[in-house]
Amino acid sequence: MSESFSPQISDRICRHMNEDHAEAVLMYAKVFGKTTTATAAEMVAIDAHGMDLLAQVDGTATPTRILFDHTLQDAEDAHHTLIDLVKQARQTGK
């Protein structure tokens, strides 16, 4: 994990996403993690290259790694990238 994504920053982003944007995390799992039958998802880690989710699929916790289309520079880049991914997910109609 690069310095721009210390464990503390990863934890802060994950906590925020899970508490305030659970619907977006589920969309990430369904659309980009290809777990279309997921009923819930939790972001467990984020780094400069991707995010790790734990999706609930048929009652089973399923680890899912989603890679970003570029290397994130910092937490602000992560913020913008996560917003862009939500927009992309919504456009898929899922």
UniProtKB/TrEMBL annotation:
<feature type="domain" description="DUF2470">
    <location>
        <begin position="10"/>
        <end position="85"/>
    </location>
</feature>
<dbReference type="InterPro" id="IPR037119">
    <property type="entry name" value="Haem_oxidase_HugZ-like_sf"/>
</dbReference>
<protein>
    <submittedName>
        <fullName>DUF2470 domain-containing protein</fullName>
    </submittedName>
</protein>
<dbReference type="InterPro" id="IPR019595">
    <property type="entry name" value="DUF2470"/>
</dbReference>
<dbReference type="Pfam" id="PF10615">
    <property type="entry name" value="DUF2470"/>
</dbReference>
